[in-house]
């Protein structure tokens, strides 16, 4: 395949070990990004061929969701071999080529690490099952005898995040009902026992394996879950999903997780900076503590203050801001979360992060198309024009905030969720386990359109593993390129402006300025942002020269009418 390795869009981002403080990081969901071999499933070859799109978009780094050897019970978040690529995605050679090409284009690569659980096909787990009770390999997971006269009841009352009990009973090698094992997610995802030194050693070794491969960091899956409260105590409450994110659970956000991340930070510190872009690493970066390699926590905690614990100076570098993702398109709510996020990160000197979409939630163009309060997994398309208008405005607001931002593939095209997928094509394990009550994550995972025509709109030549809706081609990269009103060009312009305009990017503060109700207005150095979250136009004094807006804006003589659901950027 022909590669176009031109100079990176931002040569400066290639020479800073603290690049992550203001990085825009683009999430690639490998099975749905681009299919290089025409089997209907995205792969590494497809990703490699499309890297120039990401360079042109203007992002700094790419986070790849799991591509490891896996039976795919949870779309790759069930890893059977942490050092191998699943054949559906390619080979280690392909991974190496992606990393090298990305670096040559000035893009960093962050890979997903899944340390809370393995696949039930992982060698340790398989051997633990085969060897039966008393096997030392069982200590690397949580095996327990059941309660009740014949051990027929689960060892405690914990419920799986995907619905049903968090325990599954095993069958002994002689065919008799045996011990139970813990799985906070699907039964195919047994939880590791992080009290066991072999588990700790193994993951430090896995980190080194991928650092040796040249990756720039890790997004750490379920970073809040590794350590469980001693004795695995009952919660005493059913319907535990409702407690998640609000209460401290005996399996989440336990203080013991932090020493694990402190030890990982030491591992990262052994590595020098990668060569990024044509100029390679800065001299100043060499030998410095982190060498530009980073750890990013997927940590769902009750408060932003608890999230900040994960990014103390000797732990991880960033943590996802799920409080922000869950905030409605409402000025007062947004302001509160923005303020509390910045305040929480300041004492630990970590950048705030911002995110609106990922592979686990309904895309923001669809969330904002629906009435607030429905949660983050929806089945209703809502008012698509309204959703897109708000999504564009929300993105521009997000990219104006101090810190680092995460984009999810396809949001640059303004893609909505596919809310009408027939149940029989859905593959999300949580959909099937919860009997359709929850788990609508397939809707945001539909392969993205690259071209107007073609069997799978340029995703590949052999169809797509989830059906793409009719009309998907009108939203494609090809259709939107060069159209100044398109969402793709808005993202490109925004990311380009972010690199050049003082006041955008790194930092930990902003100054709110006076604004009518429902409008957010703030300044940072020579930059100002105004976001109208109301459904009506508002008249404002123009803070400066208009740089960019998420919709058509008329600047008059010193004042401006900001349309409903519109964000504008200003040079002051
Ligand atoms: C979080 C991941 O983002 C999600 O997709 C996965 O199902 C769970 N962790 C379990 O690994």
From TrEMBL:
* Glycoprotein is among the record's keywords: yes
Gene3D superfamilies membership = Glycosidases, Oligo-1,6-glucosidase, Domain 2
InterPro entries from the UniProt entry:
GH, GH13_cat_dom, O16G_dom_2
Keyword Ligase listed? The answer is: no
Q: Which keywords does this chain's UniProt record carry?
A: Glycoprotein
- Tell me the domain of life: Bacteria
What is a single molecular function from GO for this protein?
alpha-amylase activity
One annotated GO biological process: oligosaccharide catabolic process
Q: Which CDD domains match?
A: AmyAc_OligoGlu_TS
| Protein family membership | Belongs to the glycosyl hydrolase 13 family.
Listed name of the protein:
Putative alpha-glucosidase
């Amino acid at each position: 395949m022909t590669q176009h390795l031109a100079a990176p869009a931002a040569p400066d981002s290639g020479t800073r070990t603290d690049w992550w403080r203001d990085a825009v990081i683009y999430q690639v969901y490998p099975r749905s990004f681009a299919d290089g071999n025409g089997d209907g499933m995205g792969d590494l070859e497809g990703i490699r061929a499309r890297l120039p799109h990401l360079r042109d978009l203007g992002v700094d780094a790419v986070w790849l969701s799991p591509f490891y050897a896996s039976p795919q019970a949870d779309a790759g978040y069930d890893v059977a071999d942490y050092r191998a690529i699943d054949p559906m995605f390619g080979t280690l050679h392909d991974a190496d080529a992606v990393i090298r090409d990305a670096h040559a284009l000035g893009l960093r690569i962050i890979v997903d690490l899944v340390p809370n659980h393995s696949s039930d096909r992982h060698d340790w787990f398989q051997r633990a099952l085969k060897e039966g009770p008393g096997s030392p390999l069982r200590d690397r997971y949580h095996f327990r005898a059941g309660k009740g006269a014949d051990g027929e009841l689960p060892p405690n009352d914990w419920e799986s995040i995907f619905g049903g009990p968090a325990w599954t009973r095993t069958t002994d090698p002689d065919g008799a009902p045996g011990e139970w094992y813990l799985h906070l997610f699907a039964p195919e995802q047994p939880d590791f026992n992080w009290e066991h030194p072999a588990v700790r050693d193994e993951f430090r070794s896995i980190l080194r394996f991928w650092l040796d491969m040249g990756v720039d960091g890790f997004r750490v899956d379920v970073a809040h879950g590794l350590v469980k409260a001693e004795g695995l105590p009952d919660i005493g409450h059913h319907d535990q999903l409702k407690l998640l994110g609000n209460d401290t659970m005996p399996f989440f956000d336990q203080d013991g997780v932090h020493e694990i991340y402190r030890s990982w930070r030491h591992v990262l510190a052994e590595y020098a900076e990668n060569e990024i872009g044509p100029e390679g690493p800065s001299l100043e970066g060499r030998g410095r503590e982190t060498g530009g390699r980073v750890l990013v926590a997927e940590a769902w905690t009750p408060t932003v203050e608890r999230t900040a614990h994960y990014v103390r100076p000797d732990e991880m570098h960033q943590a996802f801001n799920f409080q922000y993702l869950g905030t409605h398109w409402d000025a007062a709510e947004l302001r509160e979360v923005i303020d509390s996020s910045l305040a929480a990160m300041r004492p630990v000197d970590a950048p705030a992060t911002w995110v609106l979409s990922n592979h686990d939630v309904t895309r923001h163009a669809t969330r904002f198309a629906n009435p607030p309060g429905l949660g983050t997994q929806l089945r209703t398309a809502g008012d698509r024009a309204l959703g897109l208008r708000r999504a564009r405005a929300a993105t521009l607001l997000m990219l104006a905030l101090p810190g680092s931002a995460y984009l999810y593939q396809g949001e640059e095209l303004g893609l909505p969720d596919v809310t009408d997928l027939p149940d029989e094509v859905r593959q999300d394990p949580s959909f099937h386990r919860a009997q359709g009550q929850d788990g609508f994550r397939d809707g945001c995972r539909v392969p993205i359109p690259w071209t107007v025509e073609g069997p799978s709109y340029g995703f590949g030549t052999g169809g797509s593993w989830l059906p793409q809706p009719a009309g998907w081609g009108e939203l494609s990269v090809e259709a939107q390129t060069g159209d100044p009103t398109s969402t793709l060009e808005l993202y490109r312009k925004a990311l380009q402006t972010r690199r050049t305009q003082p006041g955008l990017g790194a930092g930990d503060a902003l100054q709110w300025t006076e604004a009518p109700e429902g409008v957010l207005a703030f300044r940072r150095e020579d930059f100002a942002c105004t976001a109208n979250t109301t459904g009506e136009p508002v008249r404002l004094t123009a803070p400066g020269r208009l740089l960019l807006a998420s919709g058509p804006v008329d600047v008059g003589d010193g004042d401006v009418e900001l349309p409903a659901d519109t964000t504008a950027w200003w040079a002051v």
